Amino acid sequence: MVRAAVLPAVGAPLEITEIELPDPGPGRVRVRLAAAGVCHSDLSLSNGTMRVPVPAVLGHEGAGTVVAVGEGVTRFSPGDGVVLNWAPSCGSCHACSLGEVWLCANALNGAAGIHARRAADGADLHPGLNVAAFAEETVVPAACVLPLPDGVPLTDAALLGCAVLTGYGAVHHSARVLPGETAAVFGVGGVGLATLQSARIAGASKIVAVDVSPEKEELARAAGATDYVVASDTTARDIRALTGKQGVDVAIECVGRAVTIRAAWDSTRRGGRTTVVGIGGKDQQVTFNALELFHWGRTLSGCVYGDSDPAKDLPVLAEHVRAGRLDLGALVTERIGLEGIPAAFENMLAGKGGRALVVF
After folding, report:
1. Which of 81, 112, 186, 213 has the most CB atoms at less than 10 Å from its CB?
2. Cut 0.90: pTM above it
């Protein structure tokens, strides 16, 4: 038996309890977690913004060590360090055939399966976003693990599984920030901090960080922000004032709220690009009039998982880590145990801190 954070029902408090994991069957891998990041997507699952079968073991951003493999698994062996991949591509759907593996139609099929049983009553548990990382150990399909790159600390590597792939991909794959361009990043949480670092790596000449909290300015500047704006009704105007009244070339929204998406759009120059990374609810309606769409000539695009291919992007990210360009530890503002996850959710709702990291 292992301890895990279980969501018993949508909107219910998390339960830290013991679960019974099965032995890894054919094509599956058992992993002992070293760390798991607490992502806003986990909060969205718990409150029903995103739907998954419940009860479920949450957590999708993690890294650990292989402890056992099932029949047919030849790529991994006990003792190997791995990063969890919560959205494995099937390789055969239409999106995958186009090379757009981040849009795989079957990536989350595993969330409907039975992952484990609650020790107290034998109730079936689902694996949240496939990998159930809020637990001391997990059993996942081999497609849900990637080799730990050389030179990356195992605990910090958990952040590669979501926050960093998303933030880096938003800059390099979706928004495609070019050297010398200006950028604004809305939201200085875990993904936002990774986005700021990635904009710096891309060579952006001016990087404006935006957040509701004045206390995050130091974090943002350490990640690469050249300017900091506290979110208000004049956010777009403030950003345009920092860019010769033109607006930024690229605005990247990492919050998922209608007002923030609209502010990101309004802060982008004529002909610029606005990329939405944040996951908002169906009630978050963003409106534009037809004339402004024509006049401004901007591009507005969604961004799923950073438009990333984890198998290809992980080695690139590792090279940035080894070269000192990407600081994974700088994303973490709190290291906690499983019992600290509910408080980490509350901090996210209050706009406090960067990434909370569960360390086992």
Report:
1. 186
2. yes
